[in-house]
Every structure is written in C-alpha cells, then in structure tokens.
Design brief:
2 copies of one chain form a homodimer. By secondary structure, chain A is α/β, with parallel strands linked by helices. Helix content of chain A is 43%, strand content 20%. Chain A contains 10 helices and 8 strands. Chain A has helices spanning 12-22, 33-39, 41-50, 66-75, 89-102, 115-121, 135-139, 169-173, 184-187, 192-209; strands at residues 2-7, 28-31, 55-62, 80-84, 105-109, 128-132, 157-161, 179-182. In chain A, helix 1 packs parallel to helix 3 and helix 4 runs parallel beside helix 5. The radius of gyration of chain A is 16 Å and the shape is globular. Chain A binds chain B through residues 8-9, 33-34, 36-43, 60-61, 63-66, 68-69, 72-73, 84, 86-88, 90-91, 94, 111-112, 134-137, 140, 142, and chain B through 8-9, 33-34, 36-43, 60-61, 63-66, 68-69, 72-73, 84, 86-88, 90-91, 94, 111-112, 134-137, 140, 142.
C-alpha cells in the first residue's frame, strides 16, 4: 500500500517545502488540480525536478482533449495522470494509449461515476481506479462516507481519496487500496512529518497483514 | 447572438496575436482549458490584459474545489467561468455563489450530462448552459451531431460548442443559442479574420431575424 501526498491550494514553493519535510514518509507525490490550474505545467516540472525519485501524479482531471493534455503533463515529468471516469469512453481510451506510449500510468477518478458507467469503464483494467469523495462534498454537510464504495470489482487496482484522516484511515483499509491519497491531514497538520509518518507506518503495517 | 472565440492548444503569445487579428469580429474570448492547464492563471491575466473590452471566459471545467478555482480565475480577470454539469450539485451551487459575489457569470458545460442530471441542474437558471460536443468525440468516428440537443428548456440561456464550422453554423441556429463558441474554424483557418467575420455577420443577421 502506497501513500500519495496530495499537494493542493499551495504555492509551488510551499508545495516543494512540504514535500521535502515529509519526503521519507510518502511514496507518490500528487500535483493537485489547484496547482495545475494556478501555475500550469510549471508546477509539474518543478515537483518532478524537486522529487525525481518519487512517482509524480498530475491531477489533470482530464475530461476532453485527452491526447493534448496527457502529452502535456507526461512531457512535463508526470509519471501518472488522472482522467475523469465520467468522461466519454474515447477520452479514457486515448489517455491509456498516450500513457502506454510514454510508459506512464493512468488513474481514473470515479467522482460522480454511476454503476452503469463503472461497468463500462472497468474494462480499462490497466488503470488505477480512484474512489474519490470530492472536496466540495466533504465541506458540505454531507452524510456520504468513504470506505464504503458503491461498486467493487476485485480485479481492479484502487486508490482512495478525499478527506482521509488519522481517524478514518482504518475504515479505508477494508477497501485494500493500492494507493491511499492524503492531503490536508498531512499538509494542514501542525506537524506534517509526524502526520505523514503515522500514515506511512499504518500503510506498511496493514500492507504486511493483508 | 454572440460569438465566443475559443483559444486552445496555443502559446499565450499566439493566442493574443490571434485575438488581435479577429478582435472586431468576436464578442467573447475564451481562455481554453488547454491554455489554463499549460500556463495556469497567467493565461487568463494575459488575455484579460490584452482584451480589456471583451468578456473573458475561463474554461476551468471545474468539477471540484469550486470556491478555490472560481476565486482563482475571477481574481485573474475572468468574467465568465465554466463548471461541469456532471459535477456534484453543491459544486455548481458554489460556483454560482462565488460568481454572484464577484458579479461574474457561470457557464455550465453539459458534456456527458444525462436527462436526469439536466433536470436537476436546470434549476440553476442564472447560468448559461453550454451544449458541448467534446473534442475527443469530434476526432473519433462519431455519428453524433450538434444542433440537435437532447434536452431543451426554453427558459434557460444556451451556448453551443464543439467543432462548429461554416457548414454546420446554420444548423446551430435552430437552437437559438445566446453564445456560439468557435475554435478551430477561426484559429486554424488560413484567414482567421475573414472566418471570424463570416460567423460574426451570420450571428448578427440571424440574431436580427429571430
């Protein structure tokens, strides 16, 4: 089980500083959509340059213009890029094709994907499927809980994202995700390093038990 | 009827040069998603700075993190910003709230929106609803045709986008859109100025007839 640090709502400089602080306790580093839309591909280049040994995930949230967007971020240094599961199938297929050409990976964001759509896109077995509780739903008075995915296909590889905290981490583990994506529970912590170490150690421990 | 020039897959410099060439024949100027993801908010700032008299549309394609993303682009100078219709309702509601605060507008991109979702989001009557054929669907061997929207609610304001050409322009008009979004039919034309003039004149003429 890998820990993916999601860097959002930060300057590139602060994102790098945070990444350096928790470097030994995270596996993958995500350039959040907010960084990409604020600073463009410079954010991906800067993070890859600062962390050449990490997998850099560009949270592109592509929903159209797939070839162009995926080439853009892979050329900038991304190792993994995200596409929306609600995108047209051709868009997701294109993303996987570009990724294969660059020897990179695709993460499909399951935000708002319904059961029928999930069935259709679960044919893209080479992708990582990200169960995702959106920031906006977290911040609203929502009753939705993570760790209880609507759809499960044991043959697929999963990531989980969205407001995961020290408290909710154990409920996430029942999903046996390959990747657990943690943002503010590390970046907004008074002590990011010890927060990252907590998740990292938990992931290693539970990974051994599984 | 307004002509919105969509600037995509261009450097900021080339986008400005193109905008200057067709300035008198376009009403709104869209900073395409590809520019935003490649150059960040600098693209919005640069276009607003170059075209202060035009409405600048930031094609953010927001699907989460609504408050942050919409504040980002309005602060950068956007007059209109886009949110995906497939986003959670709370996301769209937030976008409209931020837009109201900044006295700006919201365009809801109907890409992949189904009938049930359309019914739900058509309560957001202050938004502009964009019937959108995606680039990826245009480029695939798709039979889908624009100008024949699945859902229509006469009380809403519409934009139309996606591969609109001189040939297909008249079929678009039956939808009586408020905004017609033209990209490559102008930007990839051998003579962008005369292409823009064609659409501009057609929009004026048909607008008068309606």
């Amino acid at each position: 089980m890998k820990i993916q640090l999601a860097l959002d709502r930060l300057s590139i400089q602060n994102a790098i500083a945070l990444g350096e602080e928790v470097r030994e306790y995270v596996d993958w580093i995500e350039v959040g959509t907010s960084l990409i839309k604020e600073y463009g591909m410079e954010s991906v280049r800067a993070l890859k340059n600062a962390f050449p040994e990490k997998k850099i995930v560009a949270d592109m949230k592509t929903i159209d213009n797939s070839n162009y967007e995926f080439e853009l971020c892979f050329k900038a240094g991304a190792d993994v890029a995200t596409v929306m599961g609600v995108a047209p199938s051709i868009t997701i297929a294109n993303c996987l094709e570009v990724a294969a050409t660059y020897n990179k990976e695709v993460m499909i964001d399951l935000l708002q994907v319904n059961e029928q759509q999930f069935k259709e896109i679960s044919t893209f077995t080479k992708a990582i499927f990200c169960q995702h509780l959106s920031k906006d739903l977290q911040e609203s008075a929502s009753e939705i809980s993570l760790g209880n995915p609507l759809y499960k296909n044991e043959e697929l590889t999963y990531a989980v994202a969205g407001g995961i905290s020290a408290d909710s981490f154990s409920t996430i583990l029942v999903m046996k995700p390959e990747v657990v994506i943690i943002g503010s529970a590390i970046t907004q912590s008074a002590n990011p390093k010890s927060a990252a170490k907590f998740f990292y150690d938990m992931a290693r421990k539970k990974g051994d038990e599984a």
